[in-house]
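note to self — DONT lose this again. spent like an hour looking for the file last time. sequence + predicted structure for the chain T wanted, 105 res
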Amino acid sequence: MTRPQLEHIIRAADMAQKQASKHRAALKVGQRVVVRVGGQTIRGVLIEDRGTIGVGGRRLWRIRRDDGHNGEEAPREFEMPAIYLTPVASRARRVSRPTMRSFAR
């Protein structure tokens, strides 16, 4: 392997680690998330941080589905890279937005 090839591999690994650490700070075990898969929105809870074992050092998370589930559907638990997960704001943090009714009063 030549020196430029090694440098390219090292830069790629550094970029993957920076990306993973950015998502690691945003997600925590027990947090509710939303995943878009095949046109469906799946709600779930993060149950395990699998680490940077994904392709290119992506951080994988194990998710337990929140929605109703029967034996004919996809598995109740699955793994996804952090970049596909969207955290759901907790109800305590939600800020009410003014509506047209509140302006009409």
